[in-house]
Amino acid sequence: MTLDYIRLENFGAYEGYQEALLTPEEGRPVILFGGMNGGGKTTLLDAMQLALYGSKAKVSNRGRMGYKEYLKDSIHRSADPGEGAGITLRFRRTVEGKVSHFELHRSWRVGVKGVEETLRVLRDGEFDDVFTSHWDEVIEAYLPVGISNLFFFDGEQIKDLAEGGNAAAILGTAISSLLGLDLVDRLDADLRIFERRKKAESLDPEAARLLAQAQAELDHLDKEQARLAMEIGGLVNEAGRLGKDLRDKEKNFQQQGGELFLKRKGLEAQMADLKAKKNTAEEQLRELAAGPLPLLMVDSLLGEVEQQALKENEIRHNQLLVDAMEERDESLLEILRSENLSAAAIKRVEKDLKMDRKYRLDSAEGTIVLDADAQLTAHIAHLRAKVLPAAGETARSVMRNIEDLVEKIARLEAELGRVPDEDRIAHSQKELDEARKAHAEKISELDILKVRAEVIVRQLKEADARLDRFGDRNIDARVAEDDRHRMLRHSKKVRETLAKFRTRVIRRHVTNMEALMLEAFRTLLRKSDLVHGLTIDPESFQVTLTGPNNQVLPFDRLSAGERQLLATALLWGLARASGRPVPTVIDTPLGRLDSSHRRHLVERYFPMASHQVLLLSTDEEIVGPYHKALAPFVARHYRLAA
């Protein structure tokens, strides 16, 4: 199947007639639609499904509305409801070995009796009455609606499949539809009804009344389960829509500086703390400046003072020494004279002593400038060797700290300068709060319904078991070996055989599905050695991953992006296992993946997902390097403008 053309007439966001050629080219399977949120990407996906499946289509914003109400609501607001809206979809597929071209035109209008819908199917350019009358059976035989989400899906829903608790249920439904086991399930249900009717034929009036009451209870629970399923489906769609709206509001809030606004008090507290630290550091620097620190500026002068003090100490020392020597020399000469030495010898000694005093006196000459205490030299030496270097290092450390604080304060001031005013951000914040509240309420409502659905499932099983036991007790007592007994016995055997058949069919095909899913996952995965095996339980449909040494790899070991790639791989593997050459249409294809995982999808999935791939991308997804990487595979590129 290849989509060739689509035309929308006053459908949803599309006013008037809007059309697009969808035919891919050889080696270029991708048709790329890009646009802002609200530009009509999801509406385009809805249009394709609505054209194909009508009331069974899994459209995004139907919610709990009835089909006719949805059709009426989807007519463009500026269009005349009497003129209505329509969708034309042209495609081709091989039928009985021959390529046939189909044109599917579904239109509706609001008439006197309410919404009137018309479907016309052209085959090879001519109106085909059989295909038109039986289109639901035709499309269900070729591409059942149960597996349509393998080919038409919203990238944002990948996250739900990867992380939601209902992933196994989704996978089980898809596999059952893919293998046609829904027919087996319907046959099993029909046989159960047949058995109960046969059992009831042999009961007395009172027993028949009780059996009818039990059957009525079961029928009521069946209807309640169906009603809840529809309600849950509607809530899932509404929750998805509200989730998208919430993400849009979060993005808008962030673009307006909302994140900074919410962090404002924290930023202001940081600013006050930084300024307090800066004041403390500056006070410490002032204390240093009030002490010996300024003397570092005159260190060379201090050296000169130290040398002058040393010199003056020496002068004073020599002066005192000369005075002492004069007294000593005079005493010595007196002693020599008393010893009756010759005058020549005494004169010689006197001359030598005089010369020594003269030498000492010459050394003691000099100007006393400082006239300081003798300990000044030691004080200056200690100051220069210990005190001033320590003060200088402390001052440099404090200065570096102040510079760092000044830089941080400047950055913080710039960040605070970008914080929007409260008046300007108030409206956006209110919208965001309302969107969060609405989304949370819808999720809570959905959780309540899911709990109710689980209760209904348990009640159904109990009611079904009671009904079987009731019938068995009475059939043993009242039914002999007659035709009814034989039919009941064979019917039960048929159901047992169907159960075995169902399990064996799944076991037979699941191995191929596992291989295709594992191949797809390892193709998409960045860490090629992380996952070595993938298995699916044929009864619970739980997926198990194994790593090196065949050890089970828990899902929580995978990152959020890797789990989304796993969900994509599951859908890709199932689509390949279906053997149906159907286009793949993906809305919001990259979701919230990080850059490395986005590149893997762009390079390894989109060009190979199918022979025709329609990507409905926001203006921030397939851009820049991603668009450049995908460009060789893009046949057509459309820009959606609201």
Shape: elongated
What percent of residues adopt helix (DSSP H or I)?
A: 55-70%
- Proportion of strand residues: 5-15%
- How many β strands by DSSP? 13
The N- to C-terminal Cα distance equals 30 Å
User: Number of helical segments?
Assistant: 18
Look at the helices and sheets and give the structural class.
Answer: alpha/beta
Quaternary status: single chain
Gyration radius, in Å: 47 Å
Unreliable spans = 476-481
The overall pLDDT, averaged over residues, is 79
Strand order of the largest sheet: 2-1-4-5-6-7
What does the main sheet amount to? 6 strands, antiparallel
Quick overview:
The chain has 642 residues and is of the alpha/beta class. The chain has a domain of 124 residues. Helices cover 61% and strands 13% of the residues.
